[in-house]
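ZP: hey, is the iron/sulfur cluster complex queued? I don't see it on the tracker
AM: it wasn't, my bad. submitting now with these inputs:
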Amino acid sequence: MTEFEKKYYEKRGQILVKNLRSRHFDAYYCENSTSALSKALELIPEGSTVGWGGSLTAEQIGLIDAIRKGNYQALDRAACRTPEERTALFKKSLLADVFLTGANALSMDGEMVNIDGTGNRVAAIVYGPESVIVVAGMNKVADTLENAVTRARTIAAPMNKQRFPNQTPCEVTGSCADCKSPECICNQILITRNCRPAGRIKFILVGEELGL
Ligand code: SF4
């Protein structure tokens, strides 16, 4: 990444932190993955039960690995051997002390957009875990909420669908066709616009391109 890109992300990140805080979220700007990982671990008390939604960003900064290896009770979806185990883990994650997630998109005025197939991730963002930590690269930030929804629907979702083997229009063409497929991963679209209780949702914005 060039110095110009770093400066660009930092300037936008500082404004976004202010706007997120005005909505009662906690928010921090970290210039890279290393400092984002330290900040995230600062926010997770040792011994906590920690669950997560599928978050490539949390994986990329090393947070999922750190939880697996550290002094935490990891609710690890990768350790599930059957669909039943996975469902049970998703339900347990709704009662976790801490839930980790990425964001499909954010608007510059501090609203977050997430799309979900099963719904476990958006459910945990809405209610349940005492603390929710969102890690998001600054590439996820759009100028307006409308553009953030467009990003989530036309970029994040079709890219994300490439990770799963079942067919939807976007898996074939790379573009969203607003499908009603049984395999659709866009069953729930959540906009998170304010935080109650204050500080329950914490944003760590990273000055890098991360996630999808
Ligand atoms: S084609 Fe279907 S699964 Fe793919 S992004 Fe659009 S709504 Fe989602």
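AM: back. The pocket of iron/sulfur cluster is lined by residues 157-158, 161, 168-170, 176-179, 181, 184-186 (CB under 6 Å).
ZP: great, adding it to the tracker
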